[in-house]
Amino acid sequence: MLRMPAGRAAPGARGFVRVPRVPRGDGRRLALGVAVFAPGITATSVPGSRPAEANAAFDLGGYVPAGILPVATGYLADAVGLTGGATVFGAVVGACAADGGAFVLAQAE
């Protein structure tokens, strides 16, 4: 039987939970990818030697807004009505798409 907490890890030992991260120097690529693929759920192509971590980082850009926006819209619709909630939802999605497009165009120059 495993009892929690399991205790401290030995010095220098690596934990068994890995948090995905972006390889050093690829933050700009991640930002561009999230800006382009945020309306979708996954990226179509992930170069590099650690595709699982890179894909997880790209997925974060899709799943977080895809989960937060509808839930927030539901609460807003309860507070102000369906028409107002749907209007704000459309405006937020449109603004995010415009901001993402502007960011990509600015980086392309």
Any key phrases for this structure?
about 110 residues; about 60% helix; mainly alpha; MFS transporter
Describe the protein in words:
This is MFS transporter. It comes from Actinomadura algeriensis. The chain has a domain at 28-38 and 47-108. Helix content is 62%, strand content 0%. The chain has helices at residues 27-37, 51-80, 82-108.
**pLDDT average, as an integer?**
75
Low-confidence residue ranges: none
Envelope shape: flat
Helix percent reads 55-70%
**Secondary-structure element pattern, one letter each:** HHH
Distance between the termini: 59 Å
Protein name: MFS transporter
Set out the fold topology.
Elements: H1 27-37, H2 51-80, H3 82-108
In short:
With 109 residues, this protein is mostly helical.
